[in-house]
Design a protein that fits this description.
Structural class: alpha+beta
Strand order of the largest sheet: 1-4-2-3
Largest sheet: 4 strands, antiparallel
Number of domains: 1
Helix content: 25-40%
CATH superfamily: HPr-like
Number of helices: 3
Number of strands: 6
CATH class: Alpha Beta
Strand content: 25-35%
CATH topology: Histidine-containing Protein, Chain: A
Shape: globular
Distance between the termini: 22 Å
CATH architecture: 2-Layer Sandwich
C-alpha cells in the first residue's frame, strides 16, 4: 500500500472518477483506494465518488494481482497527475 497526495483543488468529482476507473479497468490486478476510513474499488466510478476525497488529501492505493508492479506505477502517476480539469501529468 502506498500513500499519494492528490493535487486536485476541489474534490474527486465525477469526471476525475471516470478517468481513474477507466484506467483501472485495463489491469488484471484488484485495486482499492482508501480515504478517511473508507475503501473504494478503483474500477467503480460510484465507489470512488462516495469516498468524498477533499482537496489536497492523502489517499492510500492498494494493488494486488498479476500485473501489480505495472499497475501501481501507472496508477500512482495518474493519481499524482490529476488536476481539477483531468489528467495533467
Amino acid at each position: 500500500m502506498i500513500t499519494i497526495q492528490l493535487k486536485v483543488k476541489s474534490r474527486l468529482h465525477a469526471r476525475l472518477c471516470v478517468i481513474i476507473s477507466k484506467r483501472a479497468e485495463t489491469y488484471l490486478s484488484r485495486m482499492h483506494l482508501s480515504y478517511d476510513g473508507k475503501i473504494a474499488e478503483l474500477r467503480s466510478t460510484i465507489s470512488l465518488m462516495l469516498l468524498g476525497v477533499q482537496e489536497g488529501s492523502k489517499v492510500q492505493l492498494d494493488v494486488q494481482g498479476a500485473d501489480e508492479v505495472l499497475a501501481v506505477a501507472e496508477m500512482q502517476q495518474l493519481l499524482e497527475g490529476l488536476t481539477d480539469e483531468g489528467f495533467g501529468g
